[in-house]
Amino acid sequence: MKLFYIFALLALCATAVLAWEKEDHEIFDLVSELEATEGKGTNFYSWLDVPSTATTSEIARAYRKLSMQLHPDKNPNDKTIHERFARLGVVSTILRNAESRKRYDFFYKNGVPKWRGTGYYYARFRPGLGTVLVFLVVLTCGLQYIIQNMTYKTHLKRIEKIVQDAQQAAWGAKMIPGEGEKRVKVNLGGPSYDDDGYPIPGKSISMVVRGLDVFIRNPDGSEEAVNASTAVRPALSTTWFPSLIHSLVRKTLGRRNKGNEVNNDELASEVDDTDGETSSVSDSKSGTATPLEGRPAAVKAGGKRRKAIRKK
Fold first, then answer.
1. 56-65 pLDDT, tens digit each
2. CA gap 289, 44 in Å, rounded
């Protein structure tokens, strides 16, 4: 039911955003710029110094009066005068047109919305691709965290119900614990009913109750406590983006470790081959084998043979 209300609110906001047109966005910009340059709380009527019920002729006279004060020729040292003078012309045009004035009066009475739509902010600030991607990641992870939190609360209520059912089955309605332990069966899904109205028992599970503590006994004889810690708490680290980064890091480290193991095995194999090829030469006096200082046996044996041939 909560999800229904959330989606209904989002749909309502989306409808309101889609209802704003280009003219509305122009008014939003003018309201923000007018308050930034002329002072917070300044609106179209207060800037022209006319009431909101002023007629078109009254607005025209007020425009001519203010335009003479804000004319660039009379304010050569004011760097912002050109923007203010141009803004005055746009405001006057909006108020002297019946349709655009009606549109402005709506926001004048009800207030300019704080959230003006994704399209408005995108056109105003022109975010880059990286900013958009970061925004989408933060948004989706935030929504996933909210769903995790809702699921966590649902699981807590279900666990609390299971624990209470097990305690009542073991110690009765008053739940006064006795000595020792009791094995009970608790219906997890709750009873359902067939077409004739007869109850159909749901899936039940065997549980062990000691005092007010409830446990699930596994087939191997081990036990798991059933309490609030059984439910998985929501965490931002378990949302999709941090989980993806963690998985990629683990895979990368796993490949590096595997590559290091292969290199170590190859190095060890090369060392074994070198040890096998290393020979020793028998010492004529002692009759024992002497290693040839790590040099290949064929090289040293060849050197011995060359010396013997020269002596002959």
1. 999 999 999 9
2. 108
Give CA angle at 256 (250, 262), nearest 5°: 135
Tokens of 114: 């704080």
Task: Say yes or no: 94 and 60 in one domain.
Answer: yes
pTM listed for this prediction:
0.46
| Judgement on whether residues 111 and 151 belong to the same structural domain of the protein | no
- pLDDT at residue 194 in the model: 55
Do 32 and 46 have their domain in common? yes
If asked whether residues 272 and 179 sit together in one domain, one would say no
119 and 56, same structural domain?
yes
Reduce the DSSP state of residue 227 to 3 states and report it.
coil
For residue 42, pLDDT over 70 is answered with yes
Q: Which amino acid is at 252?
A: T
Q: What does the block give as tokens for 300?
A: 């040293």
For residue 147, CA distances in Å to 92, 144, 154, 165, 270 come to: 49, 5, 11, 27, 56
d(CA 173, CA 165): 10
Q: How many domains does the chain have?
A: 4
What residue type is assigned to position 14 of the chain?
Answer: A
Q: Are residues 110 and 162 in the same domain?
A: no
- Kindly provide the residue ranges of all beta strands, DSSP E only, lying in 12-101, ordered along the sequence: none
pLDDT in tens, 230-285: 888 999 999 999 999 989 999 888 887 776 766 666 666 665 655 555 544 444 44
Classified as helix, coil or strand, 193 is: strand
3-class DSSP state for residue 197? Answer: coil
Residue 169 sits in the same domain as residue 78:
no
Q: Quick one: pLDDT at residue 198?
A: 55
State the Cα–Cα distance between residues 72 and 86, nearest whole angstrom.
10
